[in-house]
Every structure is written in structure tokens, then in C-alpha cells.
Design a protein that fits this description.
Blueprint lengths: L19 H10 L2 H13 L3 H29 L3 H11 L7 H33 L7 H10 L1 H20 L2 H30 L2 H9 L8 H14 L6 H6 L8 H29 L10 H12 L3 H33 L5 H21 L15 H28 L2 H7 L5 H28 L1
Helix pairs in contact: 1-8, 1-12, 1-14, 2-10, 2-12, 3-4, 3-10, 3-12, 3-16, 3-18, 4-5, 5-7, 5-14, 5-15, 5-16, 6-13, 7-8, 7-14, 7-15, 8-12, 8-14, 9-12, 10-18, 13-14, 14-15, 16-18
Bound molecules: tryptophan.
The site of tryptophan has 16 residues, from α1, α2, α10 and α14.
Length: 452
């Protein structure tokens, strides 16, 4: 495994635990996006009807692309840039396909820069929910937090530092160890929050809101929103999954693990809805409150709730854990590249790239206060501009290119080899989807987002 210093042969790292790939990939997938994004969209887009369409998108687009990413990563056992290059060259194509990997590295750092600012607010809210200031409304509290650049910067710095520490501790000592600790914790905390919603919330109404299919709310945009959400939620299109796949042991079945990751991601999203909406209804709050939902609405519910000063911090700890396990997957692909190319050591790479994301994040810190009136792309502030660039532009293109590459340019034999253990019928279905269905659907979302 190590000790081989030949420049031709890379040191290959493998997850140790059988479940580590699943935990790490689920850790990447389950994040801030799931915990408030999914329930909120399900609520406004027709409840159960949206959930149904979302599941279809996960199966028709998410699963095939996830399998392609894992397959390309694991075959090469290299970071996304070199994994794409290797797969292309081995298929007799140009090595320029590595551009897909580069796009991923850039969008990873960009997403991390603002993800960390929001996650920093979550960290701060652990304390705020434990010791709420009397006589201050939760809206005033949120405004106090976001009005202070130094406060946001402080928590943003802490969050980036946690990422750097975990990533520099390595794939096994850092990421594997962390996800094996964080993911069970996240699951247990989520169950506690759902039980809390059964006790303190209006659970029947929450269930109804999330699951009663209302097809009158469904139109073309519902499909596109569900697709975008499925895509973002599974961490596809920027190399996170490809990179984690490169550490996957050879004997694991790519189809089964992908199905498990997608299932866990969806389960956590639904549980998040069951934890949040019953509380929102019981306390007469607005379910469609958007980004402020967890910070403003839920905080006010926690303040009034019995044992709220324990349940509140537990909830924000849950959010912070979910955010941390997602954030490390944003940084890892570029750190893996720097380490693999022997440009710098793993620690220096994590430090440099982490600091880079930290510096860009300062723009997002300021977009809550001093720069709130300054527009960058169109009329978007700094944070929203970076978000737009990465999520609406780089990521869908990345995902589409992975699908086009895997469907049309990669030698089918190479894929079949890597999918060993998979039923031939499943392979054929995968080929059909990755060739015809997934790229077209992603293209549709991409074009829709450009024109809307
Ligand atoms: N999936 C995460 C969430 O739901 C965010 C995330 C982490 C992500 N890594 C990613 C999104 C890579 C796209 C690509 O919050």
C-alpha cells in the first residue's frame, strides 16, 4: 500500500471498513441542502406528488450518474482530474476530458466558501439555542448574528479549521474516522428530533403536508425543481463521489452501494421534514419561510418548548454535523489531486486550499452586512453569485459531461469490467439511462435554470 516511491505507481488508499464508502458518500450527500431544502420544496411543490417525482429523478438521473462517477473513480484509483483523464485515454479518447475534473475542483472550493459561512451560523446557533437572550425575538436574534462581520468570520474560520484538520489527518485517519463517528450520531439525533416532533408538534398535520399528493401543484417546474434537488442532494457533478469512489475496495458492488447511498439520503431528507414541519405547525409558524426557516422559525419554537434549551442545541448540532461531513467532500477532491501530483504534502494542500476557500468566504460573510447592497452577477449579492455560478452552472455541466462521457465515449468493456458482480440486465439498463435519459434530463434542468 505504501512505500512504493515509483512515480508511475500511485499509492492507492482504500477505505478500511466495509461500510465506510456508504457512510462517507452519505455524509457527503446529507447536508444543509437536505435538512431544510428538501422539506421546504416538498411543501411548496405539491407535497407527496413532489416526493414521488423526486424519487423518480433519483432513480433515473441520480443513480446512473452516481454509478458512473464511482466506476470512473474506482477504476483509476485517482483524484477526479486524473481519473477522468485515465478513463478517457484508456478508451482511446483525448486526455482533455480531465477538464471535467478541473471544473469539479473549482466548484468544490467555491461551494465550500459559502457553505462554511452558513455552517458557521449553525455552529453559533448551538450556543444561541442553549442560552437564548431573553426579550429578543428570534428574528432580531438572526439579524444580530448576520449583522456582525466579525462574528460570522469567527464561526466561518472555526468551520474551515475543522475541515482542514480532518482532511489533513488523511483519508483513513481523518475522513473515515470522522464519518464513522458523525454519521451514526447524525442518525440518532435525527430520530430524537422526529420523536420530539411527535411529542411537541402537530405530527398529523406535518405528515399530511409532506405526503398528501397534491397533483394540482405539479407542473413542468416541479419536475425541474425535483431534478435539481436530486442532483444537488446526491453531491453529483463535481467529483465528491468520484473521489470517494476511488477509495472504494474492489470487491464492493457499485450498484448496491449507490442504491444504499441514494436511499439513505432520501430517508434523511424525509426524516428532516418529519422533524421540522410538525413543530412549525404546532407553533403557528410559516412553513414556506425559506432560508430563515431553521434559524428564525425553529429557534422561536425551541425557546417556547419544554426542554427547548437541550433540544434546540441538539438540532443545530445535527445541522452542523451534516454540514461538516458534506464540506469535507468538497475539499477532498482538490487535496487528493495536489497530493497525488506530489505538488505539496497533504497537510499543506489542505491548509492552502482551505485558506483559499476561507478568503473567498469572506465575500459571503460581508454579503450579509457591509456588502448586502452590492451586486455581482445580475442583481445577486456575493454569496448568491457564487452559489449561482457553482450550483446552477458548473455542477449541472459537470454532471452532464460525466453522463455523456460514460454513455458515449467510455469503452463499454471498461465499465463492464469495473461493474463486476452486477447483473448483466442491470448493466444494460444503466447503459441505456446514462446514454439517453440522464444527459437529456440534466440538459433540460440546465437550460431551464438559464432561462428562468
Ligand atoms: N449534498 C450536500 C447537501 O445536500 C451538498 C454537497 C456536498 C454537494 N458535496 C457536494 C453538492 C458536491 C453538490 C456537489 O447539502
Amino acid at each position: 500500500m505504501n512505500g512504493n516511491t515509483s512515480s508511475k505507481i500511485n499509492e492507492t488508499v482504500s477505505w478500511v471498513g466495509k461500510w465506510t464508502f456508504v457512510l462517507a458518500a452519505a455524509g457527503s450527500a446529507v447536508g444543509l441542502g437536505n435538512i431544510w431544502g428538501f422539506p421546504y420544496k416538498a411543501g411548496t411543490e405539491g407535497g407527496g406528488a413532489f416526493v414521488l417525482i423526486y424519487l423518480l429523478c433519483i432513480l433515473a438521473v441520480g443513480l446512473p450518474i452516481m454509478m458512473a462517477e464511482i466506476m470512473i473513480g474506482r477504476r483509476a484509483r485517482k483524484s477526479p482530474v486524473n481519473a477522468m483523464k485515465t478513463a478517457a485515454i484508456d478508451s482511446g479518447q483525448t486526455g482533455k476530458w480531465q477538464a471535467v475534473g478541473w471544473g469539479g475542483l473549482i466548484s468544490g472550493i467555491l461551494i465550500l466558501s459559502f457553505y462554511s459561512v452558513i455552517a458557521g451560523i449553525c455552529l453559533n446557533y448551538i450556543i444561541i439555542a442553549a442560552f437564548p437572550t431573553p426579550d429578543i425575538s428570534s428574528l432580531e436574534q438572526f439579524n444580530i448574528v448576520t449583522a456582525s462581520p466579525s462574528r460570522l468570520l469567527f464561526w466561518h474560520s472555526i468551520f474551515i479549521a475543522l475541515n482542514i484538520i480532518i482532511i489533513s489527518a488523511g483519508v483513513i485517519g481523518g475522513i473515515e474516522r470522522m464519518v464513522r463517528l458523525l454519521m451514526p450520531m447524525l442518525f440518532i439525533l435525527m430520530m430524537v428530533m422526529v420523536i420530539n416532533a411527535m411529542i411537541n408538534g402537530d405530527f398529523a398535520r406535518g405528515l399530511n403536508f409532506l405526503f398528501a399528493p397534491d397533483f394540482s401543484e405539479v407542473d413542468a417546474t416541479t419536475f425541474l425543481r425535483a431534478m435539481g434537488q436530486a442532483f444537488f442532494s446526491l453531491s453529483l457533478g463535481m467529483g465528491s463521489i468520484m473521489c470517494y469512489g476511488s477509495y472504494m475496495p474492489q470487491e464492493e458492488n457499485i450498484f448496491k452501494t449507490s442504491l444504499t447511498v441514494a436511499g439513505l439520503d432520501t430517508l434523511i431528507a424525509i426524516l428532516a421534514g418529519l422533524a421540522i414541519f410538525p413543530i412549525i405547525f404546532a407553533y403557528g409558524l410559516e412553513p414556506g419561510a425559506g432560508p430563515g426557516l431553521v434559524f428564525v422559525s425553529l429557534l422561536s419554537a425551541f425557546v417556547d418548548m419544554p426542554l427547548g434549551n437541550i433540544i434546540g442545541p441538539a438540532f443545530f448540532a445535527l445541522l452542523s454535523i451534516a454540514a461538516l461531513s458534506s464540506a469535507i467532500s468538497l475539499l477532498e477532491p482538490s487535496v487528493a489531486y495536489f497530493e497525488e501530483e506530489k505538488i505539496v504534502s497533504r497537510f499543506s494542500a489542505a491548509l492552502t486550499l482551505g485558506l483559499f476557500a476561507w478568503v473567498i468566504g469572506i465575500g459571503s460573510v460581508l454579503s450579509f452586512n457591509d456588502w448586502s447592497d452590492i451586486s455581482f452577477i445580475g442583481d445577486l449579492n456575493f454569496l448568491d453569485s457564487i452559489d449561482y455560478l457553482a450550483n446552477q452552472f458548473l455542477m449541472p455541466i459537470g454532471g452532464m459531461m460525466v453522463a455523456i462521457f460514460a454513455g458515449w465515449f467510455l469503452k463499454p468493456d471498461l465499465a463492464l469490467d469495473e461493474f463486476s458482480g452486477i447483473h448483466l440486465a442491470i448493466f444494460k439498463i444503466w447503459r441505456f439511462f446514462i446514454k439517453f435519459i440522464s444527459p437529456v434530463l440534466v440538459a433540460a434542468v440546465f437550460i431551464y435554470q438559464l432561462v428562468s
